[in-house]
Amino acid sequence: MDQKNIRNFSIIAHIDHGKSTLADRILEMTDTVEKREMKDQILDSMDLERERGITIKLNAVQLVYHAKDGQDYLFHLIDTPGHVDFTYEVSRSLAACDGAVLVVDAAQGVQAQTLANVYLALDNDLEILPVLNKIDLPSAQPDVVKQEIEDLIGLDCSDAVEISAKSGLNVDQVLEEIVKRLPAPKGNRNKPLQALVFDSLYDPYRGVIAFVSIKNGTVKKGDRIRFMATGAEYEVTEVGVRTPKEVVEEQLNTGDVGWISAAIKNIEDVRVGDTITKADEPADQPLEGYKEMQPMVYAGLYPVDNARYEDLKDALAKLKLNDASLQFEPETSQALGFGFRCGFLGLLHMDVIEERLEREYNLNLIATSPSVIYKVYRTDGTVEDVDNPAALPPAQNIDHIEEPYVRAEIMVPKEYVGAIMDLCQKKRGEYIDMQVLDDVRMNLVYEMPLSEIIFDFFDKMKSSTKGYASFDYSFSRYKRSNLVKMDILLNGQVIDALSIIVHKDFAYNRGNAMTIKLKELIPKQQFEIPVQAAIGGKVIARTNIKALRKNVLAKCYGGDISRKKKLLEKQKEGKKRMKMVGSVEIPQEAFMAVLSMD
Ligand code: GDP
Ligand code: MG
């Protein structure tokens, strides 16, 4: 297809505004997916995405649109996630595109991630096409929301399309606008190959598959390619696109978004953000890659069965191909043995990685409580980054500690401003600013400790505003805080994986809450187990887990065999994620107790 008839675009929006549903309609209306294969949010192909109803991974598809001007156009559409933890997926998608379709829910208006994603698109010099969705809803106010987009974002909305992605109403106009308003790729197919690697995955049969956007040149089977950052060279075995089924093509040309397979067995050779060129006719320079993402949250991941340490290592390396923001390095814990300290972009990201490791690599894992990176100033004048509470130096060696703060922007209807201010105060937030957005909404700006944000801030914010608030945050600076390490002792023994770093003013409460929570979560055993919280060797809270009295099965004596079976199964299920530490069996939930306190 002629390059001027190619359109590469992402669909961006705040979570739940209808990106994936719009992608469904586009695939349907262009007959890309056959009717009998169609299902809702078809691009959310991971089980995990379907179960949770959210998009986690970017997903690129090629389709042909027969436009009203009689010509065929080749579209490469990238559906993106909306959650703040997956912004990295969005930024990578955008670098592979020339335009973006911005979807805004006409009932909800501009939300925090609407703005965040627009800024990303503008950073990438993309043309933005605003679309108002959900106009079928009685509460939709397309005109009000258009005004909001013009005021808050500065995009002209005079001919923004009003659609219902659900029913398909006016989606044909979106397709026409894409042709008219979004630019064709600018590259030159006669120049040396420059292909941007924006994603990758490990296939057990074919090795690493690189997903690429061809910015210049062409590539086909048999070509010898070079990864410019790593210098690795391979011979191409296959190239193709996704429709969303994988389709093999003769050749990928400038403007195409597709995949390259080259029997790549060495995972380290492929890096997201790298440029692929040809070995015998290399480009002078690589393309501008991506900013490395700095993880916000760190936690230990340990196999329940120590013998599977190597499997976990292998799985992490493979998963990193498909999730470039994941970071990991080996770590040992007295309580849990050998594992990895992993860096994540947020708690949802951590949760998703853990679940993907368990499902896709068949591992049983224990995750320790998440932590941010603290800067520890020692009395000897040195400074150290600490991402694991257990690794905090002894108190007498510490001069002071700094913790990361973020700038949080919260958009909220006026009547909930008080509730949000209360919440931010409780989370040690410092008020910075407040702006009036429109007749009904305000934007609140706070500086807050990252450690308070990553835990349950989001849930608390949603529940105290009936779901009407949205927020975005970014790192602002390190600030000195009065922090201490709190140890947890089970049966008199410090469990390093349960240590946390807390603000001194909250220590007593947290210690109490933590011991009570652990008492609930750790199953009774044959003997009584004291649970203690201590700071610098001084116990600040304590409780006991009573000894087990009778066999649980005794209750079902003589009776219902199926009930007995169920009980056994339930116990077995619970066992899967338990770790024997000394003489005490600790379930996974106990390590996460810190997340569900207060
Ligand atoms: P995403 O998070 O932006 O990908 O949003 P989804 O496409 O997953 O949609 C979120 C929810 O909004 C789903 O329950 C959709 O069925 C619903 N939805 C999407 N578009 C429309 C629409 O035009 N009208 C209505 N009423 N609901 C919609
Ligand atoms: Mg989605």
Entry summary:
By secondary structure, this protein is α+β, with helices and mostly antiparallel strands.
- Rounded to the nearest angstrom, the distance between the terminal CA atoms is 60 Å
Name the beta content range. 25-35%
Q: Count the beta strands.
A: 33
What strand order characterises the main sheet?
11-10-16-7-8-15-12-13
Helix content: 10-25%
Q: So what's the overall shape?
A: globular
Give the helix/strand class.
Answer: alpha+beta
Rg, please? 26 Å
Largest sheet: 8 strands, antiparallel
Q: Please work out how many helical segments DSSP would assign.
A: 14
Poorly predicted tracts of residues = none
Give the averaged pLDDT, no decimals: 91
What ligands are attached or bound here?
Answer: guanosine-5'-diphosphate, magnesium ion
EC number: 3.6.5.n1
Catalytic activity: GTP + H2O = GDP + phosphate + H(+)
Membrane topology: Peripheral membrane protein
GO molecular function: GTP binding; GTPase activity; ribosome binding; translation elongation factor activity
